[in-house]
Amino acid sequence: MKIVLEHLTKRFPNKNRKIKEEVIAVDDFTHEIPDGKLIGLLGPSGCGKSTVLNLISGLEKPTEGKIYFGDDDVTDLPPENRGVGLVFQNYALYPHLTVKENIRFPLENLRGKDKLTKDQMDSKVREVAKLVQIENLLDRKPGEMSGGQQQRVAIARALVKKPRVLLLDEPLSNLDARLRLQTREELKRIQLETGITTIFVTHDQEEAMSICDSLVVMEKGHIMQHGAPQDVYDQPEDLFVAKFLGTPQINVFKGEIRDDALFIGKDRIMELNEENLGESRKVYVAVRPEGFVAVTDDGQGQVKNENCLHCDFRKMEVMGRDTSIICTHEAFEGTVVRAIIPSETRPRFIGGEVSFYIKPSKVHVFDAVTEDVIRGITDGE
Ligand code: ADP
Ligand code: MG
Questions:
Q1: For 30-34, what is the mean pLDDT?
Q2: Nearest protein CA to atom 5 of ligand 1, as residue
Q3: Class level of CATH domain 251-367
Q4: Which of helix, strand or coil describes residue 297?
Q5: How many CB atoms within 10 Å of residue 90?
């Protein structure tokens, strides 16, 4: 079932009572979530992700705006009538109940025509337990299971009433790295198998990119960009999105467009033809770590091509498949530039100055004032 969010705004009174000004947690949020898809809601802590989820579930009421499930306006519907399944970071299982009783719990409150017999409940519990692969744990208590297993129970409990929408709020954050990886694959499988429209909230861009059909990137209650994960990564519309997606982070330099070329500091790194030139202006030049090609290889520091970025070498980190070349540059916005190259292309000698060609598709240029992307400068846009 598709979900339509129209001009959703949520304002809270400030938690600090001395401050009169309200907190705008969600600000004019408009988006359509297609039926049967897994959508990632991504953004830094405090950007309003959980509030969006709580508005969809009905736990919070919007200050303004409308929510539709399919064609139904659910804005004023209480949470229990919306047909949503919720999973939170902290599992929220009842410690004194067994797994089976925990999963069965939402079914026991059904009344009237929806009321189920004990056998019907048991059969539903077994069905979801099988789906999340915990059939053999049904008699355990939550305290006797790993975090990953507990989260599967929480997912089973959210699914047992066959919700129309599944909402997951940072469901993997309490798991250790290995379990996180495993459980996120598991989430993807469960979503594909059930076909339930699912919104997955996370602040972890890698997690979101790896399993979601599409991403909504938020900051300060706004949608910054949405689209297929690879598209958002390859074509960030502003500097915030460019910096938020990708590990290690994109390298941001102060630059300039002038004299028919793109400059990083004093280094001319790319010729610009007339069509994509634009007027002279100050920009940010952001280069993905995989966008560098090391060209200093002769031990002399000699570089023939002029269009190179000249950096000061700091150190090399060999990581098997890839090698990181860590260096500095006077126009760099952070502390160190990180270039990642395939280990087989690693220069034999490196030191002093290290120069790089920059792959055009891995460069994004942003206006220095608005931080909006300037299109048409590189092949990537
Ligand atoms: P996220 O889930 O992205 O970390 P939240 O949706 O929890 O962000 O919060 C967004 C903003 O709204 C934050 O500034 C937070 O402090 C504020 N906020 C959330 N809930 C409340 C509340 N009940 N009362 C006051 N402020 C709140
Ligand atoms: Mg949150």
A1: 97
A2: 48
A3: mainly beta
A4: coil
A5: 14
